[in-house]
Design goal:
It comes from Thermotoga petrophila. By secondary structure, the chain is an alpha+beta fold. The chain contains 11 helices and 19 strands. It has 3 domains: 118 residues, no CATH class; 121 residues, Jelly Rolls (Sandwich); 167 residues, 7-stranded beta/alpha barrel (Alpha-Beta Barrel), CATH 3.20.110.10. A hairpin with a 4-residue loop joins strand 2 and strand 3.
Length: 429
Protein backbone atom coordinates (compact mmCIF):
# COMPACT_ATOMS: atom_id res chain seq x y z
CA UNK A 1 0.00 0.00 0.00
CA UNK A 2 2.77 2.44 0.94
CA UNK A 3 4.56 1.91 -2.35
CA UNK A 4 1.36 2.61 -4.25
CA UNK A 5 0.78 5.80 -2.26
CA UNK A 6 4.28 7.04 -3.05
CA UNK A 7 3.71 6.37 -6.73
CA UNK A 8 0.38 8.23 -6.69
CA UNK A 9 1.89 11.18 -4.83
CA UNK A 10 4.87 11.39 -7.18
CA UNK A 11 2.52 11.98 -10.11
CA UNK A 12 1.59 15.36 -8.61
CA UNK A 13 5.20 16.54 -8.29
CA UNK A 14 5.69 17.75 -11.91
CA UNK A 15 2.64 20.01 -11.54
CA UNK A 16 4.33 21.95 -8.74
CA UNK A 17 6.74 23.37 -11.37
CA UNK A 18 5.07 26.13 -13.37
CA UNK A 19 8.13 27.30 -15.23
CA UNK A 20 11.72 26.16 -15.64
CA UNK A 21 14.24 27.63 -18.01
CA UNK A 22 17.98 27.38 -18.50
CA UNK A 23 20.23 30.29 -17.60
CA UNK A 24 23.15 30.43 -20.00
CA UNK A 25 25.99 32.81 -20.88
CA UNK A 26 27.53 33.35 -17.45
CA UNK A 27 30.68 35.44 -17.06
CA UNK A 28 33.40 33.27 -15.50
CA UNK A 29 36.42 34.78 -13.75
CA UNK A 30 39.40 33.07 -12.15
CA UNK A 31 41.01 36.33 -11.10
CA UNK A 32 43.11 36.57 -14.23
CA UNK A 33 40.76 36.41 -17.21
CA UNK A 34 37.02 36.56 -17.87
CA UNK A 35 35.09 34.51 -20.41
CA UNK A 36 31.49 33.62 -21.29
CA UNK A 37 30.60 30.04 -20.28
CA UNK A 38 27.60 27.70 -20.28
CA UNK A 39 26.75 24.55 -18.31
CA UNK A 40 29.26 21.69 -18.97
CA UNK A 41 32.17 24.15 -18.59
CA UNK A 42 35.06 22.62 -16.61
CA UNK A 43 37.32 25.05 -14.77
CA UNK A 44 40.78 24.87 -13.22
CA UNK A 45 40.52 24.23 -9.47
CA UNK A 46 44.02 25.63 -8.81
CA UNK A 47 42.71 29.19 -9.12
CA UNK A 48 39.88 28.76 -6.58
CA UNK A 49 37.84 30.48 -5.44
CA UNK A 50 36.42 31.37 -8.83
CA UNK A 51 33.46 33.54 -9.76
CA UNK A 52 30.42 33.22 -12.02
CA UNK A 53 28.30 36.30 -12.78
CA UNK A 54 24.95 36.83 -14.49
CA UNK A 55 22.47 39.68 -14.83
CA UNK A 56 19.06 38.34 -13.82
CA UNK A 57 16.21 39.95 -15.72
CA UNK A 58 13.12 41.20 -13.84
CA UNK A 59 10.65 38.41 -13.06
CA UNK A 60 7.36 37.96 -11.25
CA UNK A 61 6.27 35.49 -8.58
CA UNK A 62 2.78 36.59 -7.63
CA UNK A 63 0.35 35.12 -5.12
CA UNK A 64 1.23 31.53 -4.27
CA UNK A 65 4.16 31.38 -6.68
CA UNK A 66 7.74 31.07 -5.45
CA UNK A 67 10.90 31.61 -7.51
CA UNK A 68 14.13 29.63 -7.21
CA UNK A 69 17.55 29.32 -8.75
CA UNK A 70 18.79 25.76 -9.18
CA UNK A 71 22.57 25.93 -9.48
CA UNK A 72 25.67 23.78 -9.41
CA UNK A 73 29.00 25.30 -10.38
CA UNK A 74 31.21 22.48 -9.11
CA UNK A 75 31.56 23.09 -5.37
CA UNK A 76 30.37 24.98 -2.31
CA UNK A 77 29.02 28.33 -3.40
CA UNK A 78 28.21 31.67 -1.81
CA UNK A 79 25.66 33.53 -3.91
CA UNK A 80 25.80 37.33 -3.88
CA UNK A 81 22.92 39.50 -5.05
CA UNK A 82 23.84 43.03 -6.07
CA UNK A 83 27.14 42.68 -4.24
CA UNK A 84 25.72 41.42 -0.93
CA UNK A 85 25.88 37.84 0.48
CA UNK A 86 22.49 36.22 -0.12
CA UNK A 87 22.63 32.43 0.33
CA UNK A 88 24.49 29.17 -0.08
CA UNK A 89 24.58 26.33 -2.60
CA UNK A 90 26.14 22.98 -1.68
CA UNK A 91 25.93 19.39 -2.89
CA UNK A 92 22.85 18.73 -0.73
CA UNK A 93 21.06 22.04 -1.32
CA UNK A 94 21.09 23.26 -4.91
CA UNK A 95 17.87 25.29 -4.83
CA UNK A 96 17.96 28.90 -3.66
CA UNK A 97 14.74 30.80 -2.96
CA UNK A 98 14.88 34.16 -4.77
CA UNK A 99 11.24 35.17 -4.34
CA UNK A 100 12.30 38.35 -2.44
CA UNK A 101 13.97 39.50 -5.68
CA UNK A 102 10.64 39.60 -7.57
CA UNK A 103 10.51 43.38 -7.38
CA UNK A 104 10.38 44.27 -11.07
CA UNK A 105 14.08 45.17 -11.15
CA UNK A 106 17.12 43.43 -12.66
CA UNK A 107 19.62 41.93 -10.22
CA UNK A 108 23.25 40.92 -10.49
CA UNK A 109 23.91 37.33 -9.40
CA UNK A 110 27.50 36.48 -8.46
CA UNK A 111 28.67 33.07 -7.28
CA UNK A 112 31.91 32.52 -5.38
CA UNK A 113 32.81 28.85 -5.79
CA UNK A 114 35.25 26.49 -4.06
CA UNK A 115 35.73 23.01 -5.63
CA UNK A 116 34.99 21.28 -2.33
CA UNK A 117 32.04 19.61 -0.62
CA UNK A 118 30.77 20.40 2.87
CA UNK A 119 33.44 18.21 4.51
CA UNK A 120 36.31 19.43 2.36
CA UNK A 121 36.10 16.56 -0.12
CA UNK A 122 37.35 17.55 -3.58
CA UNK A 123 34.59 18.03 -6.14
CA UNK A 124 34.99 17.88 -9.90
CA UNK A 125 35.05 21.57 -10.90
CA UNK A 126 32.35 21.41 -13.56
CA UNK A 127 29.54 23.92 -14.04
CA UNK A 128 26.64 21.50 -14.63
CA UNK A 129 23.37 23.39 -14.24
CA UNK A 130 21.71 26.78 -13.89
CA UNK A 131 17.92 27.05 -13.97
CA UNK A 132 15.31 29.64 -13.12
CA UNK A 133 12.26 27.92 -11.62
CA UNK A 134 8.81 29.10 -10.55
CA UNK A 135 6.81 26.71 -8.37
CA UNK A 136 3.21 26.56 -7.19
CA UNK A 137 3.70 26.87 -3.44
CA UNK A 138 0.17 25.67 -2.63
CA UNK A 139 0.66 22.41 -4.54
CA UNK A 140 4.15 22.06 -3.08
CA UNK A 141 2.63 22.21 0.43
CA UNK A 142 0.24 19.44 -0.58
CA UNK A 143 3.14 17.24 -1.68
CA UNK A 144 5.27 17.97 1.39
CA UNK A 145 2.39 17.39 3.83
CA UNK A 146 1.52 14.06 2.22
CA UNK A 147 5.19 13.06 2.21
CA UNK A 148 5.45 13.76 5.92
CA UNK A 149 2.20 11.93 6.67
CA UNK A 150 3.21 8.77 4.80
CA UNK A 151 6.73 8.80 6.26
CA UNK A 152 5.28 9.18 9.75
CA UNK A 153 3.01 6.19 9.14
CA UNK A 154 6.04 4.17 8.05
CA UNK A 155 8.11 4.74 11.19
CA UNK A 156 5.69 4.98 14.13
CA UNK A 157 5.06 1.93 16.31
CA UNK A 158 1.37 2.68 16.91
CA UNK A 159 -0.27 0.47 14.27
CA UNK A 160 -3.69 2.04 14.78
CA UNK A 161 -2.33 5.54 14.16
CA UNK A 162 -0.28 4.33 11.20
CA UNK A 163 -3.35 2.79 9.57
CA UNK A 164 -5.39 5.97 10.03
CA UNK A 165 -2.68 8.10 8.44
CA UNK A 166 -2.36 5.76 5.47
CA UNK A 167 -6.14 5.58 5.05
CA UNK A 168 -6.67 9.33 4.85
CA UNK A 169 -3.67 9.62 2.51
CA UNK A 170 -5.12 6.99 0.19
CA UNK A 171 -8.56 8.61 0.20
CA UNK A 172 -7.05 11.97 -0.67
CA UNK A 173 -4.83 10.64 -3.46
CA UNK A 174 -7.65 8.57 -4.93
CA UNK A 175 -9.61 11.79 -5.49
CA UNK A 176 -6.76 13.64 -7.16
CA UNK A 177 -7.23 13.93 -10.91
CA UNK A 178 -4.41 14.95 -13.21
CA UNK A 179 -4.27 14.92 -17.03
CA UNK A 180 -3.69 11.45 -18.51
CA UNK A 181 -3.39 12.23 -22.20
CA UNK A 182 -0.26 10.95 -23.94
CA UNK A 183 1.33 14.33 -24.65
CA UNK A 184 1.02 15.51 -21.05
CA UNK A 185 2.24 12.18 -19.70
CA UNK A 186 5.33 12.23 -21.93
CA UNK A 187 6.04 15.80 -20.84
CA UNK A 188 5.77 15.15 -17.09
CA UNK A 189 7.13 11.59 -16.80
CA UNK A 190 10.84 12.56 -16.62
CA UNK A 191 10.02 14.89 -13.70
CA UNK A 192 8.00 12.24 -11.84
CA UNK A 193 10.31 10.95 -9.04
CA UNK A 194 8.36 7.70 -8.91
CA UNK A 195 9.24 6.59 -12.44
CA UNK A 196 12.06 8.76 -13.81
CA UNK A 197 14.77 6.27 -12.77
CA UNK A 198 12.80 3.41 -14.31
CA UNK A 199 12.55 5.35 -17.56
CA UNK A 200 16.32 5.83 -17.68
CA UNK A 201 16.87 2.09 -17.27
CA UNK A 202 14.60 0.91 -20.09
CA UNK A 203 16.13 -0.81 -23.11
CA UNK A 204 14.89 1.77 -25.57
CA UNK A 205 14.66 4.97 -23.58
CA UNK A 206 12.02 7.27 -25.09
CA UNK A 207 13.06 10.70 -26.24
CA UNK A 208 11.32 13.35 -24.20
CA UNK A 209 10.95 17.01 -24.91
CA UNK A 210 12.73 19.34 -22.53
CA UNK A 211 10.50 20.02 -19.53
CA UNK A 212 9.68 23.73 -19.30
CA UNK A 213 7.00 23.53 -16.62
CA UNK A 214 3.33 22.62 -16.64
CA UNK A 215 0.25 24.24 -15.20
CA UNK A 216 -2.91 22.49 -14.08
CA UNK A 217 -6.23 23.96 -15.11
CA UNK A 218 -7.83 26.07 -12.41
CA UNK A 219 -10.57 23.45 -12.10
CA UNK A 220 -8.17 20.57 -11.40
CA UNK A 221 -5.94 22.69 -9.15
CA UNK A 222 -8.90 23.88 -7.07
CA UNK A 223 -10.16 20.32 -6.80
CA UNK A 224 -6.82 19.20 -5.33
CA UNK A 225 -6.73 22.11 -2.89
CA UNK A 226 -10.34 21.51 -1.79
CA UNK A 227 -9.61 17.84 -1.14
CA UNK A 228 -6.46 18.86 0.71
CA UNK A 229 -8.53 21.00 3.10
CA UNK A 230 -10.67 17.93 3.86
CA UNK A 231 -7.48 15.91 4.37
CA UNK A 232 -6.19 18.44 6.92
CA UNK A 233 -9.52 18.33 8.79
CA UNK A 234 -9.19 14.54 9.05
CA UNK A 235 -5.60 14.97 10.20
CA UNK A 236 -6.77 17.33 12.96
CA UNK A 237 -9.33 14.77 14.14
CA UNK A 238 -6.65 12.08 14.27
CA UNK A 239 -4.44 14.45 16.25
CA UNK A 240 -7.19 14.86 18.84
CA UNK A 241 -7.65 11.08 19.08
CA UNK A 242 -3.91 10.59 19.54
CA UNK A 243 -2.71 13.46 21.76
CA UNK A 244 0.98 14.30 21.71
CA UNK A 245 3.42 13.41 24.46
CA UNK A 246 4.88 16.91 24.40
CA UNK A 247 6.19 19.62 22.14
CA UNK A 248 9.27 19.39 19.93
CA UNK A 249 11.17 22.61 19.31
CA UNK A 250 13.39 22.56 16.22
CA UNK A 251 16.22 25.08 16.11
CA UNK A 252 18.55 25.70 13.19
CA UNK A 253 22.28 25.25 13.81
CA UNK A 254 25.52 24.74 11.89
CA UNK A 255 28.52 23.00 13.39
CA UNK A 256 31.52 24.62 11.72
CA UNK A 257 34.92 23.25 12.75
CA UNK A 258 37.16 26.27 12.78
CA UNK A 259 40.31 24.38 11.77
CA UNK A 260 39.84 20.74 10.81
CA UNK A 261 39.58 19.58 7.20
CA UNK A 262 40.29 22.94 5.55
CA UNK A 263 42.39 26.09 6.09
CA UNK A 264 41.14 28.98 8.22
CA UNK A 265 40.48 31.13 5.14
CA UNK A 266 37.97 28.52 3.97
CA UNK A 267 36.37 28.59 7.42
CA UNK A 268 35.77 32.30 6.97
CA UNK A 269 34.10 31.60 3.63
CA UNK A 270 31.98 28.87 5.26
CA UNK A 271 30.90 31.37 7.91
CA UNK A 272 29.70 33.79 5.24
CA UNK A 273 27.86 31.03 3.37
CA UNK A 274 26.22 29.64 6.49
CA UNK A 275 25.26 32.90 8.15
CA UNK A 276 23.86 34.44 4.95
CA UNK A 277 21.75 31.34 4.38
CA UNK A 278 20.38 31.48 7.93
CA UNK A 279 19.54 35.18 7.62
CA UNK A 280 17.72 34.41 4.35
CA UNK A 281 15.71 31.63 6.03
CA UNK A 282 14.74 34.05 8.81
CA UNK A 283 13.34 36.41 6.16
CA UNK A 284 11.42 33.65 4.39
CA UNK A 285 10.00 31.99 7.52
CA UNK A 286 8.92 34.12 10.46
CA UNK A 287 9.02 31.11 12.82
CA UNK A 288 12.63 30.24 11.98
CA UNK A 289 15.05 30.36 14.93
CA UNK A 290 18.79 29.80 14.65
CA UNK A 291 21.60 29.23 17.14
CA UNK A 292 25.35 29.56 16.59
CA UNK A 293 28.38 29.33 18.84
CA UNK A 294 31.93 30.76 18.76
CA UNK A 295 32.62 34.47 19.26
CA UNK A 296 35.51 34.22 16.78
CA UNK A 297 33.05 33.41 13.97
CA UNK A 298 30.97 36.48 14.75
CA UNK A 299 34.14 38.57 14.82
CA UNK A 300 35.11 37.18 11.40
CA UNK A 301 31.64 38.00 10.10
CA UNK A 302 31.85 41.53 11.46
CA UNK A 303 35.18 42.07 9.69
CA UNK A 304 34.23 40.46 6.37
CA UNK A 305 30.58 41.48 6.02
CA UNK A 306 29.53 44.30 8.40
CA UNK A 307 26.05 44.55 6.85
CA UNK A 308 25.36 40.85 7.37
CA UNK A 309 26.64 41.13 10.94
CA UNK A 310 24.14 43.92 11.59
CA UNK A 311 21.34 41.69 10.29
CA UNK A 312 22.45 38.98 12.72
CA UNK A 313 22.54 41.52 15.55
CA UNK A 314 18.96 42.55 14.69
CA UNK A 315 17.80 38.90 14.79
CA UNK A 316 19.48 38.43 18.18
CA UNK A 317 17.56 41.44 19.49
CA UNK A 318 14.31 39.94 18.15
CA UNK A 319 15.00 36.61 19.88
CA UNK A 320 15.28 34.73 16.58
CA UNK A 321 19.04 34.13 16.68
CA UNK A 322 20.76 32.83 19.80
CA UNK A 323 24.53 33.19 20.22
CA UNK A 324 25.51 30.24 22.40
CA UNK A 325 28.63 28.69 23.88
CA UNK A 326 30.07 31.58 25.80
CA UNK A 327 33.50 30.61 24.43
CA UNK A 328 35.80 32.19 21.85
CA UNK A 329 35.65 28.91 19.91
CA UNK A 330 34.35 25.41 20.69
CA UNK A 331 37.58 24.19 22.26
CA UNK A 332 38.93 20.89 23.45
CA UNK A 333 38.40 20.54 27.22
CA UNK A 334 40.91 17.80 28.08
CA UNK A 335 44.29 19.13 26.94
CA UNK A 336 44.04 22.91 27.65
CA UNK A 337 45.07 24.26 31.03
CA UNK A 338 42.54 25.75 33.42
CA UNK A 339 43.81 29.24 32.57
CA UNK A 340 43.26 28.54 28.86
CA UNK A 341 39.67 27.45 29.50
CA UNK A 342 39.03 30.48 31.70
CA UNK A 343 40.28 32.77 28.94
CA UNK A 344 38.02 31.03 26.41
CA UNK A 345 34.98 32.03 28.45
CA UNK A 346 36.35 35.43 29.49
CA UNK A 347 36.89 36.63 25.92
CA UNK A 348 33.84 34.83 24.54
CA UNK A 349 31.38 36.23 27.08
CA UNK A 350 32.97 39.67 26.87
CA UNK A 351 32.38 39.67 23.11
CA UNK A 352 28.76 38.47 23.37
CA UNK A 353 27.94 41.06 26.02
CA UNK A 354 29.56 43.89 24.03
CA UNK A 355 28.07 43.00 20.65
CA UNK A 356 24.68 41.52 21.61
CA UNK A 357 24.00 43.02 25.01
CA UNK A 358 23.96 39.73 26.89
CA UNK A 359 26.11 36.82 27.92
CA UNK A 360 25.40 33.27 26.83
CA UNK A 361 23.68 30.99 29.34
CA UNK A 362 24.52 27.80 27.43
CA UNK A 363 27.90 26.13 27.04
CA UNK A 364 27.63 24.52 23.61
CA UNK A 365 30.21 21.75 22.99
CA UNK A 366 28.51 19.02 20.93
CA UNK A 367 31.68 17.82 19.22
CA UNK A 368 34.14 17.63 22.13
CA UNK A 369 35.36 14.22 23.32
CA UNK A 370 35.88 14.79 27.03
CA UNK A 371 35.64 17.39 29.77
CA UNK A 372 37.73 18.53 32.70
CA UNK A 373 36.11 18.00 36.09
CA UNK A 374 36.74 21.66 36.94
CA UNK A 375 34.47 22.82 34.09
CA UNK A 376 31.27 23.32 36.18
CA UNK A 377 33.16 25.76 38.40
CA UNK A 378 34.43 27.72 35.38
CA UNK A 379 30.96 27.73 33.82
CA UNK A 380 29.34 29.04 36.97
CA UNK A 381 31.89 31.86 37.25
CA UNK A 382 31.23 32.71 33.57
CA UNK A 383 27.49 33.05 34.20
CA UNK A 384 26.56 29.84 32.38
CA UNK A 385 23.77 27.58 33.68
CA UNK A 386 23.47 24.89 31.02
CA UNK A 387 25.94 22.50 29.41
CA UNK A 388 25.20 20.75 26.09
CA UNK A 389 27.23 18.02 24.42
CA UNK A 390 26.65 14.79 22.50
CA UNK A 391 30.01 13.06 21.95
CA UNK A 392 29.85 11.10 25.22
CA UNK A 393 27.02 9.13 23.62
CA UNK A 394 29.54 7.76 21.12
CA UNK A 395 31.32 5.64 23.76
CA UNK A 396 31.37 2.04 22.55
CA UNK A 397 32.58 0.45 25.79
CA UNK A 398 31.79 2.61 28.82
CA UNK A 399 28.31 3.91 28.15
CA UNK A 400 27.63 7.24 29.82
CA UNK A 401 24.58 6.64 32.04
CA UNK A 402 22.88 10.05 31.91
CA UNK A 403 21.20 12.23 29.32
CA UNK A 404 19.68 14.99 31.46
CA UNK A 405 21.16 15.60 34.88
CA UNK A 406 22.97 18.01 37.18
CA UNK A 407 26.73 18.00 36.74
CA UNK A 408 28.42 18.86 40.03
CA UNK A 409 32.04 20.00 39.99
CA UNK A 410 34.74 19.43 42.58
CA UNK A 411 33.85 22.63 44.46
CA UNK A 412 30.11 21.89 44.47
CA UNK A 413 29.26 24.12 41.49
CA UNK A 414 26.41 22.72 39.37
CA UNK A 415 25.17 23.10 35.80
CA UNK A 416 22.34 21.34 33.96
CA UNK A 417 23.81 18.69 31.64
CA UNK A 418 22.09 17.55 28.43
CA UNK A 419 23.50 15.26 25.73
CA UNK A 420 20.87 14.67 23.01
CA UNK A 421 20.93 10.93 23.69
CA UNK A 422 19.03 9.25 20.85
CA UNK A 423 19.36 6.25 18.50
CA UNK A 424 21.24 8.33 15.93
CA UNK A 425 23.82 9.51 18.47
CA UNK A 426 23.61 13.13 17.49
CA UNK A 427 21.94 16.52 17.59
CA UNK A 428 20.86 16.76 13.96
CA UNK A 429 17.21 16.66 12.93
Amino acid sequence: MKGRLWRMLSEIVPYTVLRIERIESWIFSDGAVERIVDPSFEWDFSSAPVWFRKELEPFSAAGEQRAYLKLWFGGETLVFVDGKPYGEINEYHRMLNITPLADGKPHTIEAQVMPRGLFGRPEKPVFTEAFFIVVDEALMKVVKTLELTIKTAEVIEDESLSKKLLDISEKFLSKVWIPRDTDTYLMTAPEDPGIKDEIKNTWNTPEFKEFTGVKLSEELRNQILEEFEKFKEKLDRIRKDHPSFGTIHLVGHAHIDYAWLWPVEETKRKILRTFSNSVLLSKLYSEFVYTQSSAQMYEDLKQNSPELFEEVRKLVKEGRWEPVGGMWVESDCNVPSIESLVRQFYYGQKFFEREFGKKSKVCWLPDVFGFSWVLPQILKEAGIKYFVTTKLNWNDTNEFPYDLCRWRGIDGSEVIYFSFKNPNEGYNG
